[in-house]
Structures are given as structure tokens and as C-alpha cells.
Automatic annotation (TrEMBL):
Class of enzymatic activity (EC top level): oxidoreductase
Domain Catechol dioxygenase N-terminal span(s) in chain numbering: 33-99
One Pfam family named in its UniProt record: Dioxygenase_C
The keyword Ribonucleoprotein is assigned to this record: no
EC number of the protein: 1.13.11.1
Listed name of the protein: Catechol 1,2-dioxygenase
Domain of life of the organism encoding this protein: Bacteria
GO molecular function: catechol 1,2-dioxygenase activity
Amino acid sequence: MVTATAAASGAAATDRFRTDKSPFDAVKDTPKQRVDALAREVLDAVHATIRKHRVTYDEYNALKAWLIQVGQDGEWPLFLDVWVEHVIEDVATDHRHGNKGSIEGPYYVPNAPERGAHAALPMRADEKGAPLVWEGAIVSTAGKPLAGKVELWHADADGYYSQYAPGLPEWNLRGSFSTGPDGKFTITTIRPAAYQIPTDGACGKLIAAAGWHAWRPAHLHVKVSAPGHELLTAQLYFPGDPHNGDDIASAVKPELMLDPKQQPDGSYRMMYNFVLDPVRS
Ligand code: MBD
Ligand code: FE
């Protein structure tokens, strides 16, 4: 069996980010005053931390070496999405009345295969994991059903994401489900495993040195969209996961907890609807 390495999944996440986004274009009109304030205040916080803890030259050199390693391992997307993105997400969505969102994380791939409103995620014939059938609907904050789209991606029962870990079919456990005017969907998949971020790279080195753990609770990633409504990026979680209370990525919210019911045949069924906010005028 091929094993995933930090260097490989980090490099894949870094390449993907480079090809899919034009991050500098989107901020080219940012006023100098804002850049000045953000950069200066972050540096002020670094300086204050150094003075408070009397950081030594040995520690400073270890920091330099570590930052270089984060880049070499391609782990900037992982580092930022695990330890920073959750606050960006809070700020970006705190005006919403509809569904709570959560972070995108490093493993989204756009343009996953379209399956229709009532279908299964692409998966291997012998895909491991308990079958999961999810019934839901996309509705507006006004309670109106919406013709929209649920993009779903998640790890397999071993905790690996297709296109980032070796040996998985390209679109395994990644798909898009477009709903009709009733907004309804029925998605069949398997229950994902809890996910441990790669421990063999720079992020793992920090986790070990600080005595943290590397776990995220099992989760489903979604992007839910409908014309005239704000894009919802979220993750959904399973009750009872030991890491719901100490997610390394701080991305669990009570509103994102599922309620799967085990059936006599061992499979699970659940309902979860998405409520989208109208685009602000
Ligand atoms: C993941 O699967 C994830 O969702 C996040 C946020 C970070 C690392 C791996
Ligand atoms: Fe994830």
C-alpha cells in the first residue's frame, strides 16, 4: 500500500492553489494604509511575544529553519488553513442569518463530476466504510426552496483525500449534486474517518514540539450555491467523535453537527438542510 507523505500532499495542495486562484489580483486595489496597518500590527504582535518570553537566538534560528521547511514541504496551505482560516471564515460570514459555515481547508477541487439531485458520490466498487444516505434541501432564509448545487468532498474510511493521497481514483468521494426547483437532494456516500493532518512535515514538527495532537474529527466538506445567494462553504460533523471538542483546525460549530441514525443493515440515514442568505445589494 502506498502511503501519503506530507511532502506529496503538501506539494499537491500548493500546486492546486497556484493554478486555481489569482490571489494578488483580488487585492490589487487595497489602500497602502490598510497594508501598512495589517503588516505593522502583525509584526508588533511578534515583537511583543519575543520581549514577553525573551526569545533567544537559538529559538530565532530554529524558527527561520522551520519557516523554510514549511515552504519546502509545500505546507503553507495546510498551516494557514489549520491555524488561521477559521477566524477569516468567522469574520467573512458573521452577517449571515442562514447556515453557519466553516473553513474550506486545503483539499477542495473545483469541477467535480455532476451527479444530479439524487445520486451517489463517485466511489470504488469496494469502498470501505458504513454507507450513509443523506436527505436534505437547499432553501433561502425566507424559506423558499432553491434550485442550486451541493458540492461534496470528503476523506475515505482511511482518512485520505483523492487527488492528494496516492493510489485513489481521481474523483473518488468528490461530486456535485444539482437540485431542481424543490431544492431537494439525496446523496449516498460512506462515513469518512477522522483525519490526522500529515505528521511527517513541518506542521507535524510544530505539533510534536508543542505537545499538540494532529487530529480533525470526521467531517464532510460542502460548498452550497444557488443563483442570487451567498456561497456557503461548510463542514458537517458526526456526534460522538472524540475530536469534536478539540479539532486541530478549530472548525467545529454546534450548528454543523449531523444526526445520523443507524439502520438495521448497519448503514446510516440522516437529514440536513442548507439555508442560504441572499446576496447583499
Ligand atoms: C483537512 O481535511 C481539513 O479539512 C483541514 C481544514 C485541514 C487539513 C485537512
Ligand atoms: Fe477535510
